[in-house]
Amino acid sequence: MRLSFSRLLLVGTISTLTLFSACNMNSKIEPAPKIDLKDFFRNPERSSYQISPDGRYYSYMAPYQSRMNIFIQEIGKDSAKRITSETDRNVAGYFWGNDSRILYLKDQGGDENYRLYGVNIDGTNSICFTPFEGVLTQIIDDLEDIPEEVIIGMNKRNPQVFDPYRLNIITGELTMLAENPGNIQGWITDHDGKLRAATAIAEDGISTQLLYREKESDPFKVVLTTSYKDQVSPQFFTFDNKNMYVSSNLNRDKSAIVEFDIANGKEIKVLYENKDYDVDQLAYSRKRKVITAAVYESWKRERFYFDKESEAMFNSLSEKLKGYEFGFSSSNKAEDRFIVRTYSDKSLGAYYLYEKEGDKLTKIADVSPWIDENQMANINPISYKSRDGLTINGYLTLPKGYTMENAKQLPLVVNPHGGPWYRDSWGFNPEVQFLANRGYAVLQMNFRGSTGYGKAFWQASFKQWGLTMQDDITDGVNWLIEQGIADPKRVAIYGGSYGGYATLQGIVKTPDLYAAAIDYVGVSNLFTFMKTIPPYWKPMLDMMYEMVGDPTKDSLQMRETSPVFNADKIKTPLFIAQGANDPRVNKAESDQMVEALKKRGVDVEYMVKDNEGHGFHNEENQFDFYGAMEAFLEKHMPAAQPAK
Asked: Does 3.40.50.1820 match the CATH number of domain 379-636?
């Protein structure tokens, strides 16, 4: 069983497109008009639509004093009521507790210690349920069939682990359900809301375990122990609450959906597997008690259907929404009304109400109506080979007017993703579209370690920060240069979190490759990074030592791959941005990098936001950051072709 690190540092067969050198270079390229930066990064007009359990109301998030707050609107009515008034931070997420009460999460200044709040749909009885300093609240089960309760997790008793509590969402009464012995990483309930399974770390610190009990009055017992390199990810219990559906890569490279004998820790049968990609999600109908679809990601999101009724509904919507991808974001308890969200690579999409009776689809709202998708760029799936023979999948975005056939000598921004055990996906990306609108091509690659491509591809990243993982990025740049698409004198690298580390390591390892670099909340020193992780990561520290490096056993390698100790190799112009309250990549990571460069007399631009954490979320801070990014790139790597 593998515990998920996919968001540690930031949440079919792929079509390989052959790239050709320019064949129509004499044809005039008509670029899109320059779009106001704020249009890419301003808050959505409306987003996060959900439907009430009884199907009578919409809820959604919209700006109030530049912060995203929650609104309620009766279906069929024109007016809506704002029920929250948060002005320091956006509401991070919310859900319906019952027909008359909304629960939501919000942190303080980006510290990621999310507190849980409750408010009635008329705006009354607003309560902060978890007003504890330095405590992170998690949602374990919304207990859909128990209207006055939810189960949450908090690290209140011990900052390193989360205990489960039953919370009365009317009175705020908290009841601890179990005391975490110190190794449990996740709690799992059955369909009756009973706490009956858990995932944990074994005593050796690098094996993972699955725990089970038949009744809540029984003690938990270990039913499966595996290497952390093996993944048994519980999805949910079978509908008789006896077995469990899991995503498992035991004795296979790609994760498959299997039925699992939880009491005895054994796989019973494979329900669906894909030879090329991990299958890591399973959907179901709560009302009809049937599994509906397995979900995996190639270059787009894909589904395999178990249920004809769900497949027919999906096919009907596909016909009505041609040209767009979509998903179901919410349904009422009767499962006859659904909120549908569309999206594409060029559109943030819209929300629709789908009524099963009559097969009726009604548009509710566009997310960002000021975005004209006709002025956006295509995000193209690509693949290339690494120097040691791995297939690296990714995406190439070309400025509007350019195609794979006529792109030639374009300025390129390389954008490695965070994680690093995460992946880039196809869809609307405001950063990418902003850069493309300014005339830059953008390369995103799922370097080794990126999730979804199987166990071997993931493990190929172990202890390879700054080494072969970095080579995968470099190989993608060189591939585009060889194709004639990228101008070798106008290549920049920009990334956040692990992508920020890859940015710094890129200008250390290949200083002549990049004309400019932008590090956004990135790691600079692997030793100090390990020492300043959030307390609830510390139980996983031995795994991190195996995956990233052991500060004692691997000290020489970690020093060689920590950019701060190699600042003497950096000559690329650098811009660093950091949130002062970042709990994952401490501000000291950026401070020491800036100090090391200044000692050498190297000027580095440095932006710090005192009310942000791991990435900027407040609208005005995003405007500042992307405005500075635009000016920095234009100064050091202008998109306009220089005169010959």
From this structure: yes
Annotated catalytic residue 582? yes
Question: Pick the residue with more confidence: 453 or 10?
Answer: 453
Q: Where are the alpha helices (DSSP H) in 492-611?
A: 498-509, 526-531, 541-547, 555-560, 587-599
Task: Report the distance separating Cα 85 and Cα 68, nearest Å.
Answer: 9
pTM score: 0.94
Question: Which residue among 111, 280, 472, 582 is the active-site one?
Answer: 582
**Region 188-215: what's the mean pLDDT?**
97
What share of the chain in percent tops pLDDT 70?
95
Give strand pairing partners of 606: 576
Residue 641 pLDDT grade (very low, low, confident, very high; cuts 50, 70, 90): low
Catalytic residue, candidates 450, 519, 614, 617: 614
pLDDT digits (tens, 9 = 90+) for 238-295: 999 999 999 999 999 999 999 999 999 999 999 999 999 999 999 999 999 999 999 9
What are the sequence ranges of the domains in the chain? 45-304, 307-369, 379-636
What distance in Å separates the CA atoms of residue 351 and residue 367, rounded to the nearest whole number? Answer: 7
CA dihedral sign of residues 596, 600, 601, 602: negative
Both structure tokens of 540 = 């996983």
Return the closest-CA partner of residue 73 out of 436, 353, 273.
Answer: 353
Q: Identify the burial level of 409 via C-beta atoms within 10 angstroms of its C-beta, where 0-12 means exposed, 13-18 middle and 19 or more buried.
A: middle
Mean pLDDT, rounded, for 159-173: 97
Q: What is the β-pairing status of strands 244-248 and 232-237?
A: antiparallel
Average pLDDT estimate for 34-40: 97
Non-local (6+) Cβ contacts of 121 within 8 A are 52, 57, 59, 72, 81, 83, 100, 101, 102
For residue range 106-133, what is the model confidence (pLDDT) as tens digits?
999 999 999 999 999 999 999 999 999 9
Radius of gyration of the chain (CA): 25
Write 269-278 long-range contacts (CB < 8 A, 24+). Answer: 271/245, 271/306, 272/304, 272/306, 274/304, 276/13, 276/14, 277/302, 277/452, 277/453, 277/454, 278/247, 278/249, 278/254, 278/451, 278/452, 278/453, 278/454
pLDDT in tens, 614-628: 999 999 999 999 999
What distances in angstroms separate CA 492 from CA 365, 623, 636, one per listed residue?
37, 20, 9
Could you tell me the two tokens for 513? 């490759």
The catalytic position among 497, 524, 562, 590 is: 497
> What is the rounded CA–CA span in Å between residue 633 and residue 300?
30
Is residue 49 within 8 A of residue 59, CB to CB? The reply is: yes
Tell me yes or no: is domain 45-304 CATH 2.130.10.120: yes
Average pLDDT, stretch 201-208?
Answer: 96
Domain 45-304 and domain 379-636, same fold? Reply is no
* Strand 391-397 relative to strand 441-446, pairing: antiparallel
Can you tell me the distance from the alpha carbon of 236 to that of 284, in angstroms, rounded to the nearest whole number? 9
Mean pLDDT of 624-640: 96
Active site includes 417?
no
